[in-house]
Amino acid sequence: MPNYTLDDIINSPANTGHLHGYSGKIIRVDLTTREVSFLDTYQYVPEYVGGRMIANRIFFDEVPPDTGAFDEANEFIYMTGPTTGVGIPAGGRSAACAVGAAMSPEQYAWGNIGGWFATELKYASYDGLIIQGKADEPVHIKIEDDSIEILPADDLWGLRVHQTQAALEERYGHEFKSMVIGPAGENLVRIASITTGNDCVFAKGGFGAVWGSKKLKAITVRGHGVLAPADLEKLEYLRFNMNNPGMRPSPVLHMTQIGVPGGEFPVEYDRGNVACSPGCNQHCNALLMDGRSAFSDERVNHIEKCVSICTFDYRSDIPTTVGMFWPTKENYCAPCKLLSREFPEPDFSDPHFQEQAKPLAPDILNFWGPDYDRGTIVNDLCNEYGIDKWEVIIFMMPWLAMCKEEGLFDGMDLGCAEPIDVESEAFLREFITNLVYRRGEFGDLFAEGMARAIRGLGYEKFSESIYHGRYSQMLGGKRIDLPVSLEAAWGQSVHWQGRGFEGAIEKPTWLAMSLINMVSTRDAQTVEHFHCKHDFHEAAMADPYHCPHVIDAIIHTQNAAEIKDSVMSCEWQSPDLWWPTMEAEMYAAATGYPMTEEELNDAACRSKLLFRATLIRNHGRCRRQEMESIWRILSVPDSLDEVADWQSWNEMVDLYYEARGWDLETGWPYRETYERYGLADVADEMERLGLLPERPQERWCDYGDEPFVLFAQNRERP
Amino acid sequence: MESRGYANHVVQYAPDYSLCAGCETCAIMCGLTHFGVTGPHVSGVHVDLGTRDCIHTIQVCQQCLDRPCYEACPKKDEAMCFDAGTGVTYVRQEGCIGCGKCMRACTFTPSRITLRRAESRKGWRAVKCDLCREREGMPACITYCPVRCIGLSEDSVEAASGIHPAEPNAL
User: Fold this and answer.
1) Which of A260, A280, B144, B158 is the most exposed place for a label (fewest CB within 10 A)?
2) DSSP B11-65
3) CA atoms within a 13 Å half-sphere pointing along the CA-CB vector of A400
4) Residue-wise pLDDT tens digits, A25-63
5) Does residue A351 form part of some domain?
6) Contacts (Cβ under 8 Å, ≥6 apart) of A622
7) pLDDT mean across residues, chain A
8) Contact residues on chain B for A283, CB-CB shorter than 8 A
9) Residues A606 and A542 in one domain
10) B39 touching A (Cβ < 8 Å)
11) Is residue A273 part of a domain?
């Protein structure tokens, strides 16, 4: 048991503001020297709020330029937030940052995760942990209150994700909460994830491979301390009012169909809904019960998120409505309610109801047909090996399907004894297993992730060839070309970008999503889904590239992502466009600090600037690099057979850069921008490195020629 | 376990009425209601989490009629007390000496009684479900459960009424 009380935390000398919501310490574990030390959380708060904002500050201060994902200097910085563990809805989530292995090129990346680990770490009296250096042999870290041990993991190394979790619980007790990697992380598979309870994962950044490179198999924690919100009355208010009305009783239901909405197929299974983390009041994870296991005859439960639905059947894309992205107040509801099937009755009195409900018919894609068992096996393989499902389901499997359909695999077996067939469970099992264990030439190649593997095989053929099986239902079944590789910015796959996956969205929406992804380092749509009030829909549709409301909404979306990854909330609960002070109220209820919406927004801008500065300093980020990374996918036609216009896209990027206070030519922030958010020290550092631009006398507009896209040229061929 | 009787107590409903989602709101709100804090040892409700299969079990005092915890308490009626009107066995925090005998006397595994560190840091205090006897309305765990997967053993009608627990003043 820890020898402290709540008063010890609130009244500690370092906690000059007597803030609740923080434990006060961040653990630093150096795996090279095997030393454990601590950082004082209070040096960062309330200015940096928590979570990702603190991680961004620490990373900028500590990790030198050109550090690669697998370098000893790379730091995995994991942070909880002030709402974590105190009972505020969605506060159980947590965030991490590091140079990730999954992107191309390797870049500083971020992620967030559910599960019970974060709350347990807070009960152990820590706000986060920094993992640096490299162990010389497999290790795991055991934290129990004041005791922090770096222990051998020889007997854990090689175990799958659930085996590792079970072994740790058996060894230390069921109450220990763990984050672990599977064999994919151990083998430095670039799309490897880190998994905690509930099959919650850090998936997108390739952080599992970063752990693997550090020979870190697991972190397990048990805490016996206490936490308290500063304002219990406010907490109760939040519990009743965040995404009111609340859930109904949530029984396990016997289902008779599954699949993409509108394209379901018959199959019988039981389904429930579960929370991802402590304190959640909206339970959006699907519990698919008694499904097949990829590794035994035992029937197992699968906890699945949104993308898993495509594993079962991917004949057509995801249907959408205008209201999903451009909601009215009358018909707005949090996305989690859709996932948990708690969607409220529509408000038909809404004058824009018809437009809100207007369906945007999905493309017919014909990737693979219905098969529930195959889907469960693929999901289980991803869960147990510890690899990013998104890359497998949205990038790898469609690529396999399209390349086969176009005859690109003639004479190839991709190292499998089975015929290449994305509808074959046996083939998928072998193909995925080969890449997880880097078996053979192709296993080793695909372990590098799809973007790198495609280039290894031959970019011209295996990326830019045309797939002829996509048909637009928006255009009466017209065939529209699609490249066989659904790669978007930074080597990550498409996600709400109007083509290839979640394609049936309008131009202002996909332009916004693409801009968000362009200025990030990874697929940002896990936490930065674009939303804008319906009031501005007409203006955006009239001039999608130059609508200032779209730019404002992009910045709001991005800032909201910083906030929800720092206060700790959830993509499916916030932001609430009609409750703009919600996160500030959450923060105030947790800490007692009277945070305002403006103050929190400034903190988000500060964090975003640190992120930007890190990309510029550590990875050479500039406008040209960003434009080259995003332009290919914008040259692929949307569901209305439209592509982006180079001149107009540049003008839209100009509007965004200007609104952010960045130089148009370089994309680098000006000194005044850094200083506006209290980052003069960052400006000094950037100036020292020659990375601080001067404001030009004349407005820059030399966009140059659009980057060459081979797919666009291929489309024009007869 | 031997057959015994129980007074009114918190029960977990069958998953075909409502599935426990593992959000631990019940345990969190119990700690906050009684002590103003959250933590693993400040709640009379414990959620045994299914890390991988997501089948979660609520563990809470069943208010045994033979009250082994009460009988084991050396400060009977000062620390461990019994409300004959409701059948609830409860802990008076100011009388508890933290000896742990009640915790060990509990016949359930794991014990439905835990020990928290006293505010003074000197010694311990027993914590168990008292059905929020000093709180108006339903116990906090039931009031705040987002999916109403728990209720009272003698009052399951209310649970089946379809009232949304997260609606203000619903209960």
Assistant:
1) B158
2) EEPPTTT----S--HHHHHHHHHHHS-BSTTS-SEEEE--TTT---EEEE---BT
3) 22
4) 999 999 999 999 999 999 999 999 999 999 999 999 999
5) no
6) A616, A666, A667, A668
7) 95
8) 21, 23, 146-147
9) yes
10) yes
11) yes
B38 touches A: beta carbon within 8 Å: yes
Query: Does one domain contain both A645 and A558?
Result: yes
- Total structural domains within chain A: 3
Q: Is the pLDDT of residue B171 over 50?
A: no
Nearest to A250 among B21, B52, B116 (CB): B21
CB nearest A283 (choices: B41, B146, B165): B146
Q: Test A224 with B36 for CB contact under 8 angstroms.
A: no
- Structure confidence by residue, pLDDT tens digits, A120-178: 999 999 999 999 999 999 999 999 999 999 999 999 999 999 999 999 999 999 999 99
Q: Residue A282: closest CA among chain B residues belongs to which residue?
A: B146
Are the beta carbons of A251 and B17 separated by less than 8 Å? yes
Rounded to 10 deg, the angle between the A623-634 and A507-518 helix axes is 140
Tell me, yes or no, whether A57 and A162 share the same domain: yes
A272 touches chain B (CB under 8 A): yes
pLDDT score for B163: 43
Q: What interface predicted TM-score (ipTM) does this complex get?
A: 0.95
From B166's Cα to the closest Cα of chain A, the distance in A is 5
pLDDT in tens, A648-688: 999 999 999 999 999 999 999 999 999 999 999 999 999 99
Q: How far is B147 from chain A (nearest CA, A)?
A: 4
A66 and A183 together in one domain? yes
Query: Of the candidates A165, A278, A300, which has its C-beta nearest B51's C-beta?
Result: A165
Instruction: Check A280 against B55: CB less than 8 A apart.
Output: no
- In this predicted structure, the answer to whether residue B24 has a pLDDT above a threshold of 80 is yes
Note the pLDDT of residue B164: 40
The CATH number of domain B10-159 is 3.40.50.300 = no
A3 — pLDDT class (breaks 50, 70, 90): low
Among A5-14, B116-125, B146-155, which stretch is predicted with the lowest mean pLDDT?
B116-125
Q: What is the pLDDT of residue A99?
A: 98
Domain containing A101 — which CATH number? 3.60.9.10
Cβ contact (<8 Å) for B16 and A251?
A: yes
B51 touching A, CB under 8 A?
Answer: yes
Cis before residue B110, ω within 30 degrees of 0? yes
Instruction: Answer yes or no: is pLDDT of B155 > 90.
Output: no
Q: Give the contacts of A694 (CB within 8 A, at least 6 positions apart).
A: none
Asked if A86 reaches chain B (Cβ–Cβ under 8 Å), the answer is: yes
Residue span of the structural domain in which A295 resides: 232-319+333-341
- A159-179 burial string, b = 16+ CB within 10 Å, else e? bbbbbbbebbbeeeeebbbbb
The answer for A 230-269 residues in CB contact with B (under 8 A) is: 232, 235, 239-241, 244-252
> Residue B101: its pLDDT value, please?
98
Q: How many other C-beta atoms are found inside a 10 Å radius of the C-beta of residue A70?
A: 17
In a domain, A478, yes or no: no
Burial A396-435 (b: 16+ CB within 10 A, else e): bbbbbbbbbbbebeeeeebbbeeebbbbbbebbbbbbbbb
Q: Is A300 on the interface with B (CB under 8 A)?
A: yes
- Give the integer Cα–Cα distance in Å for A370 and A367: 10
Residues 472-511 of A with CB under 8 A from B: none
The residues spanned by each domain of chain B are 10-159
Final residue belonging to a domain, choices A201, A222, A243: A222
Q: What percent of chain A has pLDDT over 90?
A: 90
Of A222, A243, A269, the one marking the end of a domain is A222
Pair A497, A601 in one domain:
yes
Which residues of B fall within a CB distance of 8 Å from A277? 23
Q: Yes or no: say if A71 and A106 are a contact pair by the CB < 8 Å rule.
A: no
